[in-house]
Each structure stands twice: as structure tokens, then as C-alpha cells.
Amino acid sequence: MLDKDNTIEVLGARVHNLKNIDISIPREKLVVITGLSGSGKSSLAFDTIYAEGQRRYVETFSAYARQFLGGLERPDVDKIDGLSPVIAIEQKTTSKSPRSTVGTITEIYDFLRLLYARGADAYSYNTGEKMVSYSDEQIKDLIIQDFTNKRINILAPVIRARKGHYGELFQQITKQGFLKVRVNGDILDITPGMKLDRYKTHDIEIVIDRIVVDSSPDNEKRLSESINTAMHHGENVLMILDQDSNEVRYFSRNLMCPSTGISYQNPEPNLFSFNSPKGACEHCNGLGTVNEINVKKIIPNPKLSIKAGGFLPLGEYKSSWIFKQLEIIGQKYDFKITDAIETISEEAMEMILNGGKEKFTINSKDLGVARDYKIDFEGIANFIKNQHDESGSTTIKRWAKEFMDELECPVCEGSRLKKEALFFKIDEKNISELCDMDISDLTKWFHDLNSHLSDKQKHIASEVIKEIKDRLDFLMNVGLDYLALSRSSKSLSGGEAQRIRLATQIGSQLVGVLYILDEPSIGLHQRDNEKLIHSLEQLRNIGNSVIVVEHDKDMIERADYVIDIGPKAGKYGGEIISKGTPTETLKSNTITAQYLNGKMKFEIPKKRREGNGKSLKLSGATGNNLKNVSIEIPLGKMICVTGVSGSGKSTLINETLYPILNAYYFNGVKKPQPYKKIEGLEHIDKVIDIDQSPIGRTPRSNPATYTEVFTEIRNLFTMTSESMIRGYKAGRFSFNVKGGRCETCQGSGVRTIEMNFLPDVYVECESCQGKRFNRETLEIRYKGKSISDVLDMTIDEAVPFFENIPKIHRKVKTLQDVGLGYITLGQQSTTLSGGEAQRIKLAGELSKKDTGNTFYILDEPTTGLHFEDIRVFMEVINKLVDKGNTILIIEHNMDVIKLADHIIDIGPEGGKGGGTVVAKGTPEEIANNKKSYTAKFLKKELI
Question: Is 454 in contact with 404 (CB distance < 8 Å)?
Fold first, then answer.
């Protein structure tokens, strides 16, 4: 029995499909909630426990503060006792901003900036010499030491290598009481009206004082005053000119190059921030990339003429100002707009693309008169660039981006920072070089750093280095040693993003907190699973409660307490079917227990498919960490691409192979990562990529609208006799446009009542009783059902209902085949789990007629799927392959890998240690490979 004082008591939970459940969850334990996809796991963990924790936190604010936060709705639960402060670590929480990187999310970059601002040595970007800085007293002592009994001029530099006549400057200098200046190395008296050649570059220094140096008190006092005055006028830099040898020495209060006199401002942390104007590269604004015009995208086919639409942004000829200008340019450069673009001279193309202003005269041979023409043309390329840089409209920016390539910034070379920031170094490394290192290499570098620091640096930096080392170790412990701090957060998978947040939370060392995680093992190889489980146990051991929504076998077996929700999914789930320790769970008779104790299992096929004998060959892939990889993909089989996290699977398939295929079959514009050649494209006729991105995230989006079956259902309703008599069109049966929808709730079925200080309340619309449509629309019936009744049907009910309408039946049958029979056609997308959303996407693609020659790419399709769901899902996949299609799956799940016909294992490690093909062949062949980590775990599964 659980100790009542040390549990979280949830009574009467009814959120989504939960059936008024009561559950006691032990505190300060690792608790796993498992069950079929859509059974109600997330409803209990996130929409009940986390939502209530959030609401209570917001309740602690004043009423004034709460009005800005917006109210949080109370979850549909009678009572929750024993709730600690809650932190949810979900999959969808990373920023998609191009400025967000692994370094900024984990805050390691903030510590690095502080370390470089306080402990780095500065070097000159001109000579590579170490920069120096002095106090006024040090400068005075150095002058006395080095120039005793010598005649010197103390100079204050005011202009460096700039053009201009500087008449006003000389007047100003005279008014301040100075009589001489040094211009371009010559000392001159300032004369009235004095000016320089405005078109040449000049160096100007004010002569502050001329003095013979000795160590008498009067001389020292005069020297101190002159140094102070020179520093004021020279902005913290002064020059000493030895009159006899004409040699110059620079001194500065700031960091300064002893040879050339260039100086840096004293470093502050924001000098190393690419999100601050003080540190960001001015050319790319700290993004590291710039968008440049690609002429091939503007003129995809140079054989076409301007009139026939050879310039893609302009389209075909129409009577507009821009085409009139092109005709005038044609008269100047002797071409017609009906000529093929490839025949137009380079000079003319320069004018068309980059613009210009010209006046010219043409003599008419027929009339014997001269006509004057004026060209004032911005240029097509310039116009596109300006629209991209300056337009406030995202649509126009997106249009302009179609004709541009994203390239590495040529100024900062992708480092995002100003030149000065890159010349502050610790142990010969600048901050950008550290950010480009893998976390495993960076950890090693920091552990060896102490031996390379001076005593002063050790004293300043010891605390900062300790913080950085701790955070790096946490990232290593959650299996992210292959990432670099400079990696953009938008390129991270859901699992990676979640594990980064987990590492950040472990780093904060909070105690007494309830952590709720959503499948943290996604995208993680079996080898790294141990590290992840250990990290969660660490969180528990310091006094936190950890609830994990998870399907992973290892995680369930290592938990302190397991809650199984079911028995089925959707409205057939939402009940607690077993609870207790993993040992107790194994004894129960639930589907989860049967898969864990071996009563149910994935049957290994007796014979692997032979394929159709054809193959696709990709050679010389070198993107990211790939080391000149060449692969052969046999067609007509189910292929799994495996390997540890970060080994290069996504680079090879999603960033190299898919863009090549997409460009070949559908003119896709995404540029693939570098490769040498591809062969065998003629053996397949289309490619379909099903990735992990969610489907529509608005309440108006639902499975029926996403799979486009709703369009067919609406067309069916317009063909009923009553509908035709009334003249209703398809729009009448849409809840998104005026006409047939209920206007009181605008087709959403609920009305939102704003309560000012209290949370918004959603009530069923009193006009349509939640049916979304008006009375006239609901009078139209098909087989006795209105359009609203159809949206409320489950997929299982819809399949027999529409069996005589092939277009509709095919789509709903596919939804049923991928295991989604329990959801309703009109269920809001926002209430779907991640696994459900991905399977709807898959069903949308599978319901299209396949040619038996289609190449499918699936990226970890088992995300969010229970063992039983994977079995159903694999049946659908096998049917597709049996028809002759090729399916390539990037996967870590051993249950899927052991069913594959062919495996390509990338590795052996992640990051720099990966990027090669370790093994290829059938699962049986792979299992005996000594180098492969996948083989080790696969061998256990094949026994």
C-alpha cells in the first residue's frame, strides 16, 4: 500500500477521454505512465496534473498581474492533493528562431561569454600580436624609462585613414588652443582656411606637447597633464613621436596593438553575443548566413524569351511598365524581348538584373528623326533583394526567398560575431571555435584547460569554468555528446530538444519539484538509453518526483511505479487497468504486460523479401559529419537506416537523399547536402516524405479536413436530392465560411465567455447545441445522418457507413488501418497526441493511389506508439511493400528494425566519430557485426 502522506492524490479526473478516474501516485519516485496511443496518458499527466499545477502557480499572482497572463482553465477533476511545483518537459518547446542555439538554450554560451570577457587574451587582427593596455601612470613611467633625455612629441590621433578636406576640424583644433598638427607623417602649423585634398585618405594627429623627457618633478607633472589631454582628444589612445628617429609608439587605456595602434574596447560579455549590436557581425546581423540572389532561380530556362516568361518573377508578357522598360533596354543593347535569353549580351543582362540610369538617343532610319530615351531601372535582382530585406509582409519575403540561396556569411564565415570578438583567445581558441566543437571534445578541452591558464586567469575564471563543466557533463549524461553549441535549435529533433531541457533542469539542482516528461527516449539509440534513465534517477535521488509518459521497455522495467491506462484507445480507454511496481505490472493481464513478459511479441519473418532486383545508388555524400558515404538502397523492400544519435542518419536521408529525389520528381527547391552522384532514379516514380512535424494546430483543423476526406463528404451532401432542390453548394457544408455554419459561434460549436479576472469559460453554443451548423444545413441528410452527425462519428463507424462511396471509403479505411479507429472525424487537432497526428499524416499519404513504384521515407514513425500500435502500423507498412513499393525508415526501435528486409547502419559513434556505413545487409547479417552498437541489441531480439 502507498503511504497517503507521500502521494499525489488525483480524484475524479474526466479530462478528454478519462473516465472519472482516481489514482494515487507516489512522490519522490520515478513513475512511468504507459498504455496504448490515445488511451489517455497525456490527458492524465499533462492536461490534468500539470495543468492544475500551472493554474495554482498563476493563482498566487495578484489579480492585476493575472489579467496580463490570461486565465488558465481549471482541468475537469474533482480534487488533486499533494501537488508540488510542476515543471513539464515536453517535445514541442524549443524556439524556432534562427538566433536560438544549443549554447543559448542550455545557458552554457552565457557562461562562455563571461569567461571570454574576463579571462581571455586579446590579439591584434592586423599583426596577430598580443594586445596591451596601460593606465596613465604606467604610460608615464614607460615614457620616462624609454625616452629619457630625448625630444618627443605627444600626439592625439583624431582621424585615421579617412577621406575629406577637414577645414572645420582644423578650425576646431585652433579654438581649443593647439597650434600644430601632424598630417600624414608631417608636422604642420595650422593656418587660417587650411584644407586637405578631399579625395585622398588622411591620418591627422593633434600635437599636444613637445618636450624633452627627464625625471624631474616638474617634468613628470607636465607629462601627466599632457597624457591626460592626449587621451581625451585621442579617445583613450596617444602616440609618442621620437623627433630624432621619427619612430612612433602607441599607448592606450584600452586594448591596443603595440605595432599598428589599432585598439579594442575593453571586452564586456555582450561583445561575444551575436544577439547584441555590440557583438553581432554587421553584414549578417548575427545570423551567420546571408541570402544572396541565385540567377538560375530567376532564369530557370535561358532558352525561353523574356516575352514567354523566361524571367520567372515577371511571368509571361503583359502590358506593364516593367516590360516597357525592358523593351527600351532592348533598343539600347540591340535585342528584342522575343529573343532567347541566352542570346542577350552580358552588358544587357547586367542592366536587366542590377539596374542603372541612362539616357540615350536612337536615330530612326525610316523617319530620319532622333528619339531620346531614358532608362531608370532598379534591376530585377535588386528589386527581389530589397523586397526580401525591407518588406514588412511575410508573403512577399517568402516570394523573394524563392529566388535566393542561403549562404554562409562571407565576412564572419558563419561565426556570427564581429572580427574583434574572434581575436580574444584562451589557449589559442576563440569563442566561435569552442562552439563548433562537439560537446564530447569541448568537455575534454575544459577538463585539460587548467594547465594552460596563468595564475591570474585561474583566479578569475575558476567559478565560471566549474559551472560550464557541470553543464557539459549533464549534456554528456543524457546522450548528447555529438551536438555542438553552435547547432541551431530549429534543427533539433523532439527528443533532442527534450533532453537538452532535461540537462538544463538537472543543472539547476532544484529539490521537491514534480517533473513530467513526454517520451524523452524518442530519437535515442538503445546504447544511450541507460544514460537517460540514470539522469532521471539522479533527479529522483536528490528529492524530486518524476512522472514519465513512456512506451520504452527499459524505462518501464527500471521505474519504481507503473500506471497502465487503457484498455483500448479514445473513448474505449481512459481507465486505470493496472498500477504497481514493474514486477506487479508483469503479473497483470494487460496488453502492455503481455508484451513485457513475452506472451505477445513481434514475429520475425521466416523469409526476408528479395526486392525487385533494382536499386538506387547514392555516392560520395559529405554533408555535415558524413565521410564520403556511398550507399545502395535495394528497391521493393523495407529498409531501416539505424545508428546511434548524431551518427548522420538524418543528414544522409532527410538532407541529402530526399532533396535530390524531391527536386527530380517535383522540382523541389531545397538544396541537398554535397554528394557526387546518384543512379537509379528511373526505377521509381515518386517520393513521399512523412516527418515528425505536427498537423494543423488550430481547433478548426481535424482528421477529416487534414486528409481532405471532408471535401468529398461535403460534395456528397451537395448531391443529395434535397440539397440540389435548395441549390446548396459545397461551401454550405463548411464550418469555416459564412452560409451554412452557425453564426453565433462562427462554426466552432462553443462560445467563449470572457470573465476578465477569471479564466475564459467555454460553453456549448445555445443556437446550434455544439453542432456547428445552422438549422437549414442540418436538415440535409444522407442515410439519415446530418453533416454534424458525420463529424461526430468515430472512424470505425464511418468505414461501414461510407462503404459504397469509394473516394471516402478509401481514406477512412486507411485511418482505420493505421490504428485510429477510435478517433472521431471532427476531433480537434489540438486534442490529438503526437503519435496520432503523425499517423493521420501517414494515412493521408497512404490513401492516395500508390503506383507500386513509390519511395516512402519515414522518420521515426514509432514516435508515441505502444507495442500494440507498432504491430498494427507494421501491418500497413508490410502491405505497401508487398505491392512493390520501397519504404525507408529511420528508426531506433528494435521491434521495427528486426522486421526489416535490409538494414544500413551508420556510425559507429555520433558527431565526428560517426558518418560512415558500419554495416549493411539483413538483420541476421548485421547481428554478427562486431563494430556496430545496433548489432549488440539486435542480436538479443533475434534470439
Answer: no
